[in-house]
Design goal:
Pfam families: Lactamase_B
Strand order of the largest sheet: 1-2-3-4-5-6
Structural class: alpha/beta
Cofactor: Zn(2+)
Largest sheet: 6 strands, mixed
CATH topology: Metallo-beta-lactamase, Chain A
Distance between the termini: 34 Å
Order of helices and strands: EEEHEHHEEEEEEEEHEEH
CATH architecture: 4-Layer Sandwich
Helix content: 10-25%
InterPro entries: MBL_Glyoxalase_II, Metallo-B-lactamas, RibonucZ/Hydroxyglut_hydro
Keywords: Hydrolase, Metal-binding, Zinc
CATH superfamily: Ribonuclease Z/Hydroxyacylglutathione hydrolase-like
Number of strands: 14
Mean pLDDT: 96
Protein name: MBL fold metallo-hydrolase
């Protein structure tokens, strides 16, 4: 399995494209600049089969309809944020100084619980990791030692909790119970910034020190 981190948009939100030997690919959080997503997929002759959203803030969903329509693929989102796709007040795009308010079509697939999920020949585990937002999820590929943490855990930091629906205590519990229990060598691929590992964050993340 291969993955590509692709910072997109004015605040550099990370989209990820995950591909396998069959050239199938999953697209995580296409937040902006769909032409960059299209270009990478064309260059590598990939076949998109789904879009997965770690949560529904504007910077993670802005290019969803463009990508969905281009490849005619389903969108997956947690049930607690399914309505956010259609509501600029909830996805926080209503008063942005750039761009138009985001009103997307509903998601085709709703994630209602944690556990194993298979799409095409990909198998992974969904963790509910709320705190940054109520429906935040992390996507764990055990065999690859990879977790896509959305805006829960970053290199040297954690997600904001001052936005509507955010909760610091809930976020810290999510990180401690769901992410820090993973093998220390697990690579953490976040919604912003560079890669890190569980061990690195346990050792040096100032927000987790002593938790």
């Amino acid at each position: 399995m291969k993955w590509r981190r692709m910072p997109l948009g004015p605040i550099g939100t990370n989209a990820y494209i995950i591909s396998n030997q069959q050239k199938e690919c999953l697209i995580i959080d296409p937040g902006s600049e769909p032409s960059k997503v299209f270009g990478y997929i064309k260059e590598n002759q990939l076949k998109p089969i789904a879009i997965l959203l770690t949560h529904a803030h504007y910077d993670h969903i802005g290019a969803v309809d463009d990508v969905r329509d281009m490849y005619e693929i389903p969108v997956y989102i947690h049930k607690k944020e399914q309505s956010w796709l259609m509501d600029p007040a909830l996805n926080l795009s209503i008063n942005l100084p750039f761009g138009e308010p985001i009103r997307l079509k509903p998601a085709e697939e709703i994630i209602s619980s944690e556990g194993l999920m298979s799409i095409g020949s990909f198998t992974f585990e969904i963790f509910e990791t709320p705190g940054h937002s109520p429906g935040s999820i992390s996507i764990y590929f055990k065999d690859e030692n990879l977790v896509f943490s959305g805006d829960a855990l970053f290199e040297g930091s954690i997600g904001r909790t001052d936005l509507p629906g955010g909760n610091y205590d809930v976020l810290m519990k999510s990180i401690h119970d769901k992410l820090l229990t993973l093998p220390e060598e697990t690579l953490v691929l976040s919604g912003h910034g560079g890669e890190t590992t569980i061990q690195q964050e346990m050792d040096s993340n100032p927000f987790l020190n002593g938790f």
